[in-house]
Every structure is written in C-alpha cells, then in structure tokens.
Write a structure and sequence with these properties.
The chain contains 4 helices and 5 strands. Strand 2 and strand 3 form a beta hairpin. It is an alpha+beta fold. It has 2 domains: 1-34; 53-138, 2-Layer Sandwich (Alpha-Beta Plaits), CATH 3.30.70.3270.
C-alpha cells in the first residue's frame, strides 16, 4: 500500500514541477528552442578539439605513411591524379595520421559541423601541389 502512495506522490510532484517550469518560461520570455545552426554564436572550442582533417598541399609529399597507419582506411592516395582523398564517413578522428606525417602536412581544423543531406560532402580530395617532394620520395 505504501508503494501506491509513494508513486502518487512522485507523479504529483513531477507535474507540479513541470507546471512551475512552464509558467516560469511564459513569464520570463525566454526562448524554449534554439535555432540551429546559430549564425551569431560560434562555440568556444578547446585548444585540442578535433574537427575535420585538413591537408597542407604544399607540404604533403604523398609518402603514404598516413594511409598505412589509418585504422579505418579512410585515407586513399591517388598517384595518377596526385591527390590525397579522405573519406570522413570512415574517419575515427584518432589523430594517428597527424602524428605519423613526416612533413606535418595533416592537421585537424576547427570546422566540425557536418550536418548535410548530401553524402558527397564527406568525400574530400586534396590535390598535392609540391610535386618536387613527390619525385624524391617515390623514386
């Protein structure tokens, strides 16, 4: 019998709290829902936050160290088009590729919002510009 009264007490207490919260919001005039993405407010990210990978195309020499270390095989190197391709749907953002890169060409950007309806948004190809370094490494 005590359980029934305790259950009623909890339900009534929850309803009273909800009504108090709704009245507070109506009186204070605060917005209940935030607009996303908020064009005004940029979030303050920690110094070591990991967003999308970015490639410095002047430093990269297509040595394929990043490709070999990547546990999810998100990095592909295309020697025909001289490009480095990253599939962000596979990337785990572990950072191994950034650590192993001898030229420090890979780094994480502060861009992290990837909400999109188009899956092609997550396929990025970076055309490598520094062709002299590529000839040294691959010969």
């Amino acid at each position: 019998m005590d359980c029934i009264y305790l259950g009623r007490y909890v339900v009534i207490k929850s309803v009273v709290r909800t009504i108090r919260g709704v009245i507070y919001l109506l009186i204070s005039g605060h917005d209940v829902t935030e607009m996303y993405p908020d064009p005004v407010a940029k979030p303050l990210l920690p110094k070591r936050a990991r967003g999308f990978l970015s490639v410095d195309t002047y430093k990269c020499n297509l040595c394929s160290e990043c490709k070999h270390i990547c546990p999810s095989k998100a990095i592909e190197i295309d020697m025909d088009n001289i490009s480095l391709n990253i599939d962000y749907t596979l990337c785990m953002y572990c950072g191994y590729c950034c650590v192993v890169c001898p030229e420090a060409a890979l780094s994480f950007s502060k861009e992290f919002e990837g909400a999109t309806k188009n899956r092609d948004f997550f396929q990025h190809g970076f055309s490598i510009i520094n062709i002299r370094n590529i000839k040294k490494v691959n010969n």
